[in-house]
Structures are given as structure tokens and as C-alpha cells.
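Fold it.
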Amino acid sequence: MKIGILFGLGVMLLISGIALSEPLPTGDEIARRINARDEGVAVARHLTMRMTDRRGKTRTRETRAFRKYYGKEKRTVIFYLEPANVRNTAFLTWDYPDADKDDDQWLYLPAMRKVRRISASDRGDYFLGTDLTYEDIKLETRVSMEDYRRKTIGEDEVDGHHCYLVESVPVDRQTAKELGYGRVEQCVDSEIWMVRRSRFWDIKGKPLKTSYFRDIRKVQGIWTQHRIEVENHKTGHRTLFLFRDVDYEQGVSDNLFTQNALRRGL
């Protein structure tokens, strides 16, 4: 009798046009969709960084950034152009697909005239006065499959776009210490599979920062973010990243992704 009632109720719901809700995709499914999104083979772009402290004092950095894939390996380099006191500073990362192999990262500081290697234990340090870490910069629009355990905890909306809400927790305490995050909550656009908002907590469970990824539009057929807003809730410091002159088609020279290129500059 109960089975018949439940069956009848299901039929009535379908007839009335009310669809039975489908299960949400798992956290790992969403992460794989994020990482499978087309980013082109190579990209060149201009990046402006604006850092504002809690008193309202702002510093601006003008840079040129390049990224290129070599199969599943990704290489990224950023050259500082302005102002004069940071000109010729450069950052290079080689991101390997093998989880057992540490990524290579180097920083060139012209005042020291030396390329400094950044170790894996430094990846949670903040990148040159911004509110993103070296790891955040390296990952760009992708997510780490190895560093976190994740689950889908619901749905949300950001700037009018439907999103899946994914909670990620580092796989162990050492990883959390390296990353500087005890928990991350991301709102992932359910149509284009890009993160539109990220919330971070420190390893003690206290709110750390919030990032918004905005002005997402297609460039040469590829969905591209043009604006990142980050606020550090502990310090009151804010960082704004503005991308322009994004080009996926002009090609990027292999010679840019070397330590010699860091010393040479653009």
C-alpha cells in the first residue's frame, strides 16, 4: 500500500511538471571539471596589481604575465615593469603533473642580482606584497587534486550566477601548514566551471580572506577572468588584480620560461 502511494505521488509530481531533484556533483567531480576547462595552450597578458592597506594607502604594480602548457606541465612567468623600485623583478614557476614531484619556483630580485629558488614549504607565503600566496598564483584558475579532500555542501549564487558550493580541507596537518589554510570554501559556476568566490580560514579555523573572481568573459573563445578582488580579514589589506590585452593566439616563446629570462627581463 505504501509503495503504491509513493509511486502515485512520483507520477503526480512528474505530471505536474515538478522534476525530482538530481544529486549534486561530488567535490572531486567539480574539481575535475574545473581542471578540464579549456585554457588554451599559451596566453600573454598585462596584469595590474593594486594593494591597499587598512589606512587606504595604495601601491600599484604593472606587469606582463605569460603562461604555456607543455602537455600537462604548466609554466608561468611574471615580469614587473613599473614602478622603478620593483622593475625587473620576475617570478617563474614550473608546475609538474606528477604529484610526487615538487614544482619548481624561482624569484629574481634585481637589487640582489640573484635568482632565489622558492621551496615547497614556502608556497603558503604571500606573493610580493599581495593577498595571494605563491601557490594561489601558480594554480591560477585551477585547483589542487592532491592537497585537499573536498565535498559538495550545497548551492549558492554569486553575481547572479548559479554555483555549487564546495568545501575543501587539507589532507593532513603538514599540508595545511604549508598552504596556510585550514579550510577553503569555493563557489563554482555550474555552467562554465570557474570559481567565482573563495573563502579561506587559517589553520586555527579563523576567517582569513575572501576572493572574488569577476568580469569573466570570453576571449578568443576561452572564458577568462579579468578582475580578482581579495580582502584579508585579519589585516584589512586588499589586493585588486586587473587583466587586459589577453591573447591566446599570438604564441609565447619557450625562452621566457628560464632562469636566464628572469635575469634578462623583457
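The two ends are 77 Å apart (CA to CA).
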